[in-house]
Amino acid sequence: MDETIIQENSRYWADFWHQSTRSGKNRGPMQAGFWDNMSGRFARERSEEREDKRLKTVLDLLGHTSLKIGGAEVLDIGAGTGSLSIPLARMGAKVTAVDFSAEMLKKLNQRATEENVSLERTVLKSWDEIDLDAEGFRNRFDLVIASMTPAVRCPETFNLMLGAAKGVCYYSGWVNRVWDPAYYETYRLLFNDEFREGSHGFYLPFMYLYMKGYRPTVSIRQDVWKGDETVDEMVDTVSGFFSVTKDIDEKMKNRIREYFLTKANDGKYASVTTATTGMMVWDMRARKP
Q: For residue 43, which of 107, 153, 217, 264 is within the disulfide window of CB 3.0 to 4.6 Å?
């Protein structure tokens, strides 16, 4: 295909991507504070079985490329508490972990110390504020990862991801998410309306990449996530997701708290969410114009 047409196609799709994702940077899960509050739960609820299953899925997809993990330079964008960074470093990768949540990186570094795993570097910065040249990231990494992270949420942040890679990229994001019924009930209680979560959607980066001439290998999976959280944790989580599109004040938080107090058992609420996610891998050296 003519390079001019490729440029036009990707530009038109980028415009559509922007129109489809209008939630503000500093709202809900786009705030570092939201993930600071979540970090304790991530560390506490870490399951080796679930982590091993996730790692196997990632490695199976990476098996479609020529990447060798041992000795590879890896960049983990939105690394969180290290569910991928730590296992990959244990396998011999030289991992640089980036996250805008100080508490998430604190938990990641604590875990690395406890498990005697060495990381190349951790970077406390929002991905959209990264200067690839100043950080020495441009075209540097054998593998760049963006796994279920709001850090890569628009064409600009996706292009930053592409710019950091000299080899393989791995991306995963939402296809669909059916929340626990409590989310829908509390939303109706507060706003007399139906909760319709806005998400950038896996299809947006997939199509953008496709328009640029790449043909990623894709895998779709569905999981049932079960949580067991305190009432206060549920209030923080629910109000955090609602605040993407709504202003949540203390009065509203108190109403959410009252709702969960009636539903909790011994001070905890058992939630069930069905999550469908899309994963894709591609090699930056394998573009098909």
A: 107
